[in-house]
Design goal:
The protein has 138 residues and is α+β, with helices and mostly antiparallel strands. Helix content is 38%, strand content 21%. It contains 6 helices and 6 strands. It has helices at residues 12-29, 37-44, 65-75, 79-82, 106-109, 127-133, and strands at residues 34-35, 54-59, 86-89, 95-101, 112-116, 119-123. A hairpin with a 5-residue loop joins strand 3 (86-89) and strand 4 (95-101). The protein is globular. The protein starts with 11 loop residues before the first helix and ends in a 5-residue tail after the last helix.
Protein backbone atom coordinates (compact mmCIF):
# COMPACT_ATOMS: atom_id res chain seq x y z
CA UNK A 1 0.00 0.00 0.00
CA UNK A 2 1.32 3.41 -0.85
CA UNK A 3 1.61 6.26 1.57
CA UNK A 4 -0.93 8.45 -0.20
CA UNK A 5 1.61 10.82 -1.66
CA UNK A 6 0.77 10.41 -5.34
CA UNK A 7 0.97 14.17 -5.75
CA UNK A 8 -1.98 14.55 -8.15
CA UNK A 9 -4.77 16.55 -6.59
CA UNK A 10 -8.30 15.72 -7.66
CA UNK A 11 -11.37 17.92 -7.88
CA UNK A 12 -14.27 17.73 -5.46
CA UNK A 13 -16.41 16.08 -8.16
CA UNK A 14 -13.80 13.40 -8.94
CA UNK A 15 -13.32 12.62 -5.25
CA UNK A 16 -17.06 12.61 -4.58
CA UNK A 17 -17.57 10.04 -7.34
CA UNK A 18 -14.79 7.89 -5.86
CA UNK A 19 -16.32 8.21 -2.38
CA UNK A 20 -19.65 6.96 -3.72
CA UNK A 21 -17.79 4.05 -5.36
CA UNK A 22 -16.19 2.91 -2.10
CA UNK A 23 -19.46 3.44 -0.25
CA UNK A 24 -21.18 1.07 -2.68
CA UNK A 25 -18.42 -1.51 -2.30
CA UNK A 26 -18.53 -1.38 1.50
CA UNK A 27 -22.33 -1.77 1.38
CA UNK A 28 -21.87 -4.91 -0.75
CA UNK A 29 -19.30 -6.23 1.70
CA UNK A 30 -21.57 -5.49 4.68
CA UNK A 31 -18.47 -4.05 6.30
CA UNK A 32 -18.41 -1.06 8.64
CA UNK A 33 -15.79 1.53 7.79
CA UNK A 34 -14.59 4.94 8.87
CA UNK A 35 -13.39 7.84 6.78
CA UNK A 36 -9.75 8.62 7.45
CA UNK A 37 -7.16 11.25 6.55
CA UNK A 38 -8.06 14.23 4.40
CA UNK A 39 -11.36 12.57 3.47
CA UNK A 40 -12.39 12.50 7.15
CA UNK A 41 -11.22 16.07 7.70
CA UNK A 42 -13.35 17.35 4.80
CA UNK A 43 -16.41 15.47 6.08
CA UNK A 44 -15.84 16.61 9.67
CA UNK A 45 -15.69 20.28 8.75
CA UNK A 46 -18.20 20.01 5.87
CA UNK A 47 -15.71 21.23 3.26
CA UNK A 48 -15.44 20.32 -0.39
CA UNK A 49 -13.44 17.14 -0.86
CA UNK A 50 -9.79 17.76 -1.67
CA UNK A 51 -6.63 15.74 -1.84
CA UNK A 52 -4.94 12.94 -3.73
CA UNK A 53 -7.47 10.17 -3.07
CA UNK A 54 -10.06 8.71 -0.70
CA UNK A 55 -8.98 7.12 2.59
CA UNK A 56 -11.02 4.74 4.70
CA UNK A 57 -10.31 2.28 7.49
CA UNK A 58 -11.77 -1.11 8.31
CA UNK A 59 -11.13 -3.37 11.28
CA UNK A 60 -9.10 -6.52 10.58
CA UNK A 61 -11.87 -8.59 12.19
CA UNK A 62 -14.16 -7.49 9.35
CA UNK A 63 -12.11 -9.49 6.87
CA UNK A 64 -14.32 -12.54 6.56
CA UNK A 65 -14.24 -15.11 3.79
CA UNK A 66 -17.20 -13.31 2.23
CA UNK A 67 -15.19 -10.06 2.09
CA UNK A 68 -12.17 -11.84 0.59
CA UNK A 69 -14.36 -13.49 -2.05
CA UNK A 70 -16.05 -10.26 -3.14
CA UNK A 71 -12.76 -8.34 -3.27
CA UNK A 72 -11.13 -11.16 -5.22
CA UNK A 73 -14.00 -11.12 -7.70
CA UNK A 74 -14.38 -7.35 -8.08
CA UNK A 75 -10.84 -6.06 -7.58
CA UNK A 76 -8.79 -9.19 -8.35
CA UNK A 77 -7.05 -9.03 -4.97
CA UNK A 78 -5.71 -11.97 -3.01
CA UNK A 79 -6.16 -12.31 0.78
CA UNK A 80 -2.44 -11.58 1.14
CA UNK A 81 -2.89 -8.27 -0.72
CA UNK A 82 -5.91 -7.35 1.40
CA UNK A 83 -4.91 -8.20 4.97
CA UNK A 84 -2.72 -5.14 5.67
CA UNK A 85 -4.67 -2.71 3.54
CA UNK A 86 -4.87 -2.10 -0.16
CA UNK A 87 -5.24 0.57 -2.78
CA UNK A 88 -7.06 0.58 -6.07
CA UNK A 89 -8.06 3.13 -8.67
CA UNK A 90 -11.67 4.22 -8.87
CA UNK A 91 -13.34 6.25 -11.57
CA UNK A 92 -11.18 8.98 -13.10
CA UNK A 93 -8.07 7.26 -11.69
CA UNK A 94 -8.73 8.44 -8.13
CA UNK A 95 -6.83 6.22 -5.66
CA UNK A 96 -8.93 4.62 -2.95
CA UNK A 97 -6.79 3.60 0.01
CA UNK A 98 -8.23 1.08 2.46
CA UNK A 99 -6.30 0.81 5.71
CA UNK A 100 -6.91 -2.38 7.69
CA UNK A 101 -6.25 -1.56 11.33
CA UNK A 102 -5.52 -4.20 13.95
CA UNK A 103 -5.29 -2.30 17.22
CA UNK A 104 -8.25 -1.17 19.32
CA UNK A 105 -7.85 2.57 18.94
CA UNK A 106 -10.16 4.36 21.36
CA UNK A 107 -11.15 6.96 18.76
CA UNK A 108 -12.54 4.21 16.52
CA UNK A 109 -14.59 2.55 19.27
CA UNK A 110 -17.54 4.99 19.27
CA UNK A 111 -17.47 6.72 15.89
CA UNK A 112 -19.06 10.06 15.24
CA UNK A 113 -21.79 9.88 12.57
CA UNK A 114 -21.90 12.80 10.15
CA UNK A 115 -24.12 13.60 7.21
CA UNK A 116 -21.94 14.65 4.30
CA UNK A 117 -22.62 14.83 0.55
CA UNK A 118 -26.00 13.08 0.86
CA UNK A 119 -24.53 10.18 2.84
CA UNK A 120 -23.92 9.29 6.46
CA UNK A 121 -20.34 8.45 7.36
CA UNK A 122 -18.48 7.36 10.46
CA UNK A 123 -15.53 9.42 11.66
CA UNK A 124 -13.01 8.78 14.43
CA UNK A 125 -14.19 10.19 17.75
CA UNK A 126 -12.81 12.35 19.29
CA UNK A 127 -11.62 13.58 15.94
CA UNK A 128 -8.94 15.90 17.33
CA UNK A 129 -7.16 13.01 19.05
CA UNK A 130 -7.30 10.91 15.89
CA UNK A 131 -5.99 13.81 13.80
CA UNK A 132 -2.93 14.23 16.03
CA UNK A 133 -2.04 10.53 15.83
CA UNK A 134 -3.32 9.61 12.35
CA UNK A 135 0.14 8.74 11.02
CA UNK A 136 0.69 6.15 13.77
CA UNK A 137 -2.32 3.95 12.97
CA UNK A 138 -1.46 0.38 11.98
Amino acid sequence: MTNGESGKQFSDEELKEALFTIEDLMDQLLTPYLLLGKTAECAKYNKLLEGDGIDIGIRDKSLTQYVYDILADQLKLTPEQIKDGFEYKAVNGVPIRVKVYKRNYYFFKYPDHVVYNFGTYDLPNPFENYWKSRFLIR
